[in-house]
Amino acid sequence: MKLTLALPPAFRPEYALAYHGRDRLSVSERVEGRTLAKTVLVDGTARLLQINLAHSDHPTDPHAQIYLDGDVLPPEAVERIVSRMLGLGSDPVGFEALVAAREDAARILGSRSGLRIPLTADIWDAVCWAVIGQQINLTFAAALRRAMIERAGVLHPARGLYAHPDPARVAALEIDDLTSLRFSRSKASYLIGVARLIEEGALSLEALAQRSAGEAESALVAIRGIGTWTARYILLRGFGFPDMAPIGDSGLATALQRLHGLAERPDIKAQEASMQAFAPHRSLATTHLWASLGD
Question: What is the model's pTM?
Fold first, then answer.
């Protein structure tokens, strides 16, 4: 299957490429130049999705070329996945209008005007990232995620990449399967536990996506092993809710400290107060603040 997807004017591909390519050793997605490859699971089979962004800078017709091996999904389903991964649901115009009147607008935006929030290919992928990433650094989280995908995912024989395992495949694991891969027992239990809730029908991510952000957050934090930070990361990167701030995030606290010139990193209460100024665009504000750490 080959498709062409129109992109918004002044679309900036570097953010999607950086997000999906942040684990250079990833076994399920790869970035090579302006092409993003992602192996997806369709009816139990690994299929290779390729998004070529070489034409995204076209001045009058920015677009992406999309390739999927086999006509196994309807075009609208493929476009929905790609739109998520490129962050096309973001509202950078609204966010930038909000911060334009702020004295520190230049420090918030930097050279990132037009930044959008790339999402994971599906919500479940974000759930796994968030649970695996609890209280550890990105490098170790990425290593654990790779090991889990190799253990439970489905290999694409031609490309050598794995499709991320669905909830059923993770639910079928035992805790020892993951502790043997350097997961802590608690982390393994949390991940398998939420997978089993989905597989048993006690939790529907698709149903939560139709509810308000507050209702979805309440439902997530009621699950064993999911606290406020984990829930809000999932709501931001998985569901794509526009007004989420993962309070308690170390990077967010450091970015707010720099933004406001504080002697110390703000505590939870101060983070909440600072981020309230960016409502109803706290997800984009969070993404800009994270990106500012590299300035």
Answer: 0.95
Which of 133, 149, 29, 152 is closest to 81 using CA atoms? 29
CA dist 239 and 13 (Å) reads 21
Residue ranges of the alpha helices (H) in 70-204? 75-86, 92-99, 105-109, 123-132, 138-152, 167-171, 175-179, 185-200
What is the amino acid identity at position 128?
C
For the residues of 163-184, what is the DSSP string, one character each? Answer: EPPPHHHHHT--HHHHHTTT--
On whether the CB atoms of residues 158 and 48 are closer than 8 A, the answer is yes
3-state SS class at 62? coil
Residues 194-238 pLDDT 10s: 999 999 999 999 999 999 999 999 999 999 999 999 999 999 999
Say yes or no to pLDDT of 245 above 90: yes
Structure tokens at 24: 């250079």
Measured CA to CA, the distance from residue 270 to residue 137 in angstroms comes to: 23
